[in-house]
Input
Amino acid sequence: MLTRREFVGSAAALLPVAPKKPLRVAVITTIYKYLSHGQHIGDRFLIGYPHDGEWHKPDVQVVSLYVDQKPEGDLSEERAREFGFRVYPTIAEALCCGGDKLACDAVLIVAEHGDYPRNDNGQILYPRYEFFEQCVKVFEKSARAVPVYNDKHLSYSFEKAQSMVAASRKMKFPMLGGSSLPVTWRLPSIDMPWGAHIEEAVMVGEGGSDPMDFHALEALQCMVERRQRGETGVSAVQMLTGDAAWKAGWSKDLLSAALSRSDTPLGLTVKDGRTQDLTAPGVLESLVKEPAAYRIEYRDGLRATLLMLDGAVKDFNFAARVRGAGILSTQFLLTPVPNVTYSACLVSKIEQMFMTRRAPYPIERTLLTSGILESCLTSKKQNQQRLETPHLAVTYRPVREPQYAA
Amino acid sequence: MKLAALVTRYFKYSHAQHIVDRFLDGYGWHGEYHHPPFDLVSLYVDQVGNDDLSRERGARHPSMRLCSSIAEALTLGGDKLAVDGVVLVGEHGHYPKNEKGQTKYPRYEFFRQIVDVYRSSNRAVPLFSDKHLSWNWDWAKEMYDTSRAMEFPFLAGSSLPVTWRTPSVEMPLGSPIREALCVGYGGVDSYDFHALETIQCMVERRRGGESGVRWLQAYRGESFWEALSEGIWPADLMQAALCRSHTLTPARPGFNDMFPSRDQMRALVKNPVAYVYEHEDGLRSTMLLMNGLVRDFNFAARLGGAPKIFSTQMYLPMPDGRTTLANFFSPLVANMEQMFLTGVPPYPIERTLLTTGLTAAGVESLYQDQKRIATPHLSIRYQPPKESTFERA
Output
């Protein structure tokens, strides 16, 4: 006859092992409508995403959603009904799932899209800092902090961005931010050699400020940060527009290399399909009505330039002169709408941080790009003057392992 | 070096425009703007339509002679061959279709006229022929045999084998491939050929090299879905390939990227086509055209001993709104250049001979009520190049 202890023991052995509970994620967005960042990033945690030749279903449960604005086409309530979570009226309630303390294991902040004013720098005042700050308040009150992903730049203000990073350090929670460009596929599939001696870098982008210039700056930064001695920060910036952009001191052979990677030259290519050397005399000048050069002087002497060439191309391309290796160049592939599979590459990194509580690459990259962007736009406003940027002495060591989709 | 180009039509985004423009105007290549080191001295256009661009190109490149016959383009008006290489682009244009739905592009007819000039000049120069050799297998075989008999370098095929891949991976040489599959889009006797070349450039690298193909069976419409349910091809390879796509049609409104259920696939894909074929060494390959679900070409294979399915996308920057240049033609032109310069085709013509035969067999099977077609004529054995030839630099 079995003793009670033996019975309990044997019965327990027959029961399946209690599965580990999925990670509980709170989603905080400005809006949740079709093709907003909130929707395409948020949905991947609900229905999975393509990754490495599989349809990957993250082991997470979205437990709550906060949306700041509900424009026409809002999907938040529909998603909540279908996937069994609630839309809460405040960020604090979303993080606490209606209770009085933190009730989630990770926070996804996507404050991109929606109707927000611009400041006199032309920056859209997305409430990223404000959302983040409310999360931190809940963390403090609950004496517990969880990983936070913050989409795109940390804030339009470097000062605010810096305080966000400081909060994550103080409370020791992992934080990831930024663009999907650093992690998408590259054509060709190359990384900057680790420890490279980069002599100059040129990035070409398009699509206006301040959504798309940020993406281009992140693409540039994920390459140059791998140089000798790592990132040293930025000592000065200058933004030049109009004719001055053409004379902003960047190397033509680097522009030519970057543009050689483009699949989207405009002008005569659109007219009759022909290939064309965009750097032939006069071509760019005739195609690009409002060129912009973002000149970046790093503290270790590296010079980099982002050229926003609306009207010339529709993709993002990079080139750098590397001592001993010549010119390296590649395209950061933005795959087509609506799948925008590049955002799946980013979600895979976010999920990695949520699961391991370690950011796959340093938040300082995005802190620096947030600051570079703000200072460049300030330079533009201040008569395109060169501005010293002692506050951008952001130093960090990047990760050696390539982080892009391969 | 002098080149002649012979094309069916020359209009915006036609194959002729993509290919010949790259010789005339250059192209971005390996980080610089590259001008091919050739003089494209003559162009023959079989059909000059209202949308023709060859006259504009001729005016802008006066060193290119616009010719009224193939012989003139090859001899530059003289009495013997006056060029060092020939580019044949027999794609697009108004040509009749046969009862099986094949467009009778005059590739073989052009080829015959080319070799007539070669013969009368006692000299044969390298030839590139775009896409499959001919819609007609016997003619394709004759083209192949003629090139061998006359010993001139002959390159052909699709740009799919040489374009970028996402991810940028190559099938390891000598791989024990158990099963292979490609999901693509487009029509029969058209993009099926691209998908077959996609498969072939991968499976030819398997242990033992290419052994030829024993039989092929096509499935269309309802029988496609039945075959999928019966496991005629592996659903997990199909899933892996679809997970490499950048263009999955969302099955539900409001979602931008979702993996469709079987029922959703059926709703999205009205007229799917499959070619299932068995190679002589037992390998089973499957080509799927799933219009309505994807607009790209994705490959998957099961390798013996590997726990994970091998998969990638043959990436086509496509000027249908996604890009403005069809830059997958750049690696194709670069491979032509290499053949013209070295006299050695960078990959074997037997690949395209086989895929030409597979395309015709697929059409034939569909024509014969999806019957299995024995393909003893496709007992084509060859070894792949050791070096990778897809674009990764």
Notes: Chain A has 13 helices and 16 strands.
